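Hey all, sorry for the wall of text incoming. These are the four entities for the joint prediction.
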Amino acid sequence: MPRPAKVTRDQIVAAAIRLVDRDGAAALTMSRIGEELGVAAMSLYNHIDNKEALLDAVAETILSDITVPSTASGWESIVRESFRSVRRVAHRHPALFPLVLDRVPHLLGEARLIEAFLEVMCAAGFDERTALGAFRILSDFTIGYVLAEARGITLEPGQGRLQAGSLPSESFPRIAQVLPQLGAEDRDADFELGLDLILTGLRAWLSDRTATRPTVD
Amino acid sequence: MPRPAKVTRDQIVAAAIRLVDRDGAAALTMSRIGEELGVAAMSLYNHIDNKEALLDAVAETILSDITVPSTASGWESIVRESFRSVRRVAHRHPALFPLVLDRVPHLLGEARLIEAFLEVMCAAGFDERTALGAFRILSDFTIGYVLAEARGITLEPGQGRLQAGSLPSESFPRIAQVLPQLGAEDRDADFELGLDLILTGLRAWLSDRTATRPTVD
DNA sequence: ACCTGAACACCGTTCAAGT
DNA sequence: ACCTGAACACCGTTCAAGT
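and here's what came out:
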């Protein structure tokens, strides 16, 4: 005789995200999720295979929050906005994002993002191989940057993660000189600067190639 | 009455590294380390505070393998070689590197690397603030890249991490087109291209500034 | 069809007892 | 000064028994 389900798969995924956002990555436990939903831990296995599969589902959900703007305003701003979107999503789920990244390589959502990126870049005149290289560089830069932010940066306004006493300014004169200058805006500025450097390089690559081999066919 | 120690702190750190290199990150367990050294798990607590402290020690050891070349050949090749060294170390310990990264922000070794980088860049004519921005961009790019390699890249020569069947080429035409072109060398090439793009941008920044404000004092 | 108590093999860590 | 058996509070997961 069938029985009405007390929880659904979607509720489990949502509870997992809520839990990590609220209590940190260490709180992501089958029992804690159950507690969150008024159900015993073992009940979750009626709806998901195991914890790994749950993390995949969580990761797909987070990935789907990344937005690629509609193809209006040229490849550079589409690309720039896309990676800003990655960073925005990471900021929304700082504790969760590192867990998501572990799952990304085998997710379908990632393939969708790559396909969309290649589409934009090829339309702009890049060949597939170069476009993929550009994707790796831009996304790995973004991921590294965002991960550093999520983890807590070494040198930050104030004093950063290194304990105040542990950095004798006579052994670290340059660091002692930058530290007081740092403001919170600098994290945004450095990310944008990184995107700029890479995009400028790609722009140069493109104008070189369209100069030597002017738009055939 | 004193008793000769069966293990030392250094042996514990070495065993931990060996273990992860051989059996993967999941094998890093107090009991497995004890087993490796012929000692019960609890004995380790006579030499280290807890597992977190052990991971810090492991991370410091790995960090110290990163080499910054002697100041011979100009800032660009010093910088390039330094980040190549990071990647080399990561390749030597693929399973361990993600764990190390979690610890990096509060390690003294990281501060030493930053200080050395700032030194090189300031000698080349950068101000401290810009030099720190450059460090963030270069190191976060490198870390993101190397992490993607350690985790397994989505699109790789062969088929990559996505299961063969799961990528219908009619929904992913661009990906279907690049995949067969990819060779193993492309991972090196894309990393070097990323360094090139960033370094080219920094070079441009430097020549702009020395042009407008020619080497005073 | 879904829930759960009991059980299993594993964690990290503490502490008292040993040498 | 160092090692360890027993114990504790936690993991993820399975399975048989319940509705």
